[in-house]
Amino acid sequence: xxxxxxxxxxxxxxxxxxxxxxxxxxxxxxxxxxxxxxxxxxxxxxxxxxxxxxxxxxxxxxxxxxxxxxxxxxxxxxxxxxxxxxxxxxxxxxxxxxxxxxxxxxxxxxxxxxxxxxxxxxxxxxxxxxxxxxxxxxxxxxxxxxxxxxxxxxxxxxxxxxxxxxxxxxxxxxxxxxxxxxxxxxxxxxxxxxxxxxxxxxxxxxxxxxxxxxxxxxxxxxxxxxxxxxxxxxxxxxxxxxxxxxxxxxxxxxxxxxxxxxxxxxxxxxxxxxxxxxxxxxxxxxxxxxxxxxxxxxxxxxxxxxxxxxxxxxxxxxxxxxxxxxxxxxxxxxxxxxxxxxxxxxxxxxxxxxxxxxxxxxxxxxxxxxxxxxxxxxxxxxxxxxxxxxxxxxxxxxxxxxxxxxxxxxxxxxxxxxxxxxxxxxxxxxxxxxxxxxxxxxxxxxxxxxxxxxxxxxxxxxxxxxxxxxxxxxxxxxxxxxxxxxxxxxxxxxxxxxxxxxxxxxxxxxxxxxxxxxxxxxxxxxxxxxxxxxxxxxxxxxxxxxxxxxxxxxxxxxxxxxxxxxxxxxxxxxxxxxxxxxxxxxxxxxxxxxxxxxxxxxxxxxxxxxxxxxxxxxxxxxxxxxxxxxxxxxxxxxxxxxxxxxxxxxxxxxx
Length: 655
Known about the structure:
By secondary structure, the protein is mainly beta. Helices cover 4% and strands 42% of the residues. It contains five helices and 46 strands. The chain is rod-shaped. Strand 11 (149-157) and strand 12 form a beta hairpin.
């Protein structure tokens, strides 16, 4: 590995100066080298260091990855241990431990490296080893699983002995047990005056430690990202911490020099106060490239310790944090959604929805349940933006099963129904709490429900416009069904008014063909006289002394069944006085003009606006319906059928 090495001649602090004076060596000078960026050793990496740049390697530092297996033939189990070991080789001598000279001593600031140290002159020496099991790291050589460790060394140059140290750290042991750590080589120094001891001291501003990034929220913004770090061991040299965020994989600002060159809007400044720090980022935070933080991006953090300018002028950069992604967490989908028929009112109260909670009910605040016409193009946002007339909302209670009985005042999505002979399915939105989850999910039921009801929400209009005293006197108007493509036939039925409370859709389904008037769907409103031979529901010829009502039954088809639904009954009428019932009639209903004039006399019907201006007119005779108002704007109008007759005020609302 090659490093960018910035070598500086430095003056140690007062403690070091005192040491120099004590040894009567006023020519003492320390050469310090910052490795920028830091070297990371993992697996089988190695770093060769030439301390004095004389062309000879003075020490090698290496990493070794080891995997071992244990297997029991009798018990039928096996285990494996993954370990990483760091050691030095190709050195003159390294300071060892009193207990085991074959292990490098873990030195700290204030320790003196000189001839009296316990020196190990073997060709190889271990200084850190760690194993990984399922749950945590197992430290084999104690004391190294932290940042800011020092090893002491000596080397020969021109036949003279020089003493020095190398500073190194183990990265992020607590953040991720899924990976073995790396060894970080940060800097080194040696005494340029031969045979002169060196004291390990803070050459630079001490670094912040244990940087941990976390995604703590679900706002889809930089507010979700939080950094915690421990203050430097010795803050006396630190004037300021600068917090930087890199976007992965664009993290090119990993060297100290590159970070120091960035403008002030690329970092957050923290003044040391003797405590550890928690940094919450926000919409104004920029990464090292000058871009705002964004969701679904991965970041890592570094903290630069700025020098105090008195005890040291050298800044220092922390070990990089873990990598963390600002992610959008979803609530998960409602499961096993089923729509059931649970009534016959002709309203949404006929529906019941049952579903189970998501496999992961993460950050779920509520459910919104909808009933939609099958085939309607729907997505999460479309449903979410509908008003409360279209859904039932219930809070998430973490129960496994949910059951919702719809009230009568809700509408079906796609047709504002329910409408008979239409297919529906249930949809459930999961609503996030915007704290633990940001996005919700939409899921539909696996099966549709073919909706039927015994009551169709329309009323036939009856006009008596002849004097035959037979069913031919009866002119019936009825709007076409909005789902006429699913209607097999319309059936007009005469029922004695006294029997309306007992007559049902089941009765209509059992009528013989002679007891109703069959009309096939042709895409238009029904406007017809009944045939004179029509019988009532009992097969009787209509009696002029009896009061009747008219029902319209609609017959719907599926692949397997025929369904019948009944309209509301018309207003009661009798056939007993043809002269009275033969007076001219003009009725406005459902955006249509229904007329009946005896003797087939020609009449002119006029449509007047509120100023009396004629907007349209039609010449008609007999009975019929006018429903074509093309080109007439919605509004209030008056209808008149001759100059002497009174007018009818109407409101036209269709084009």
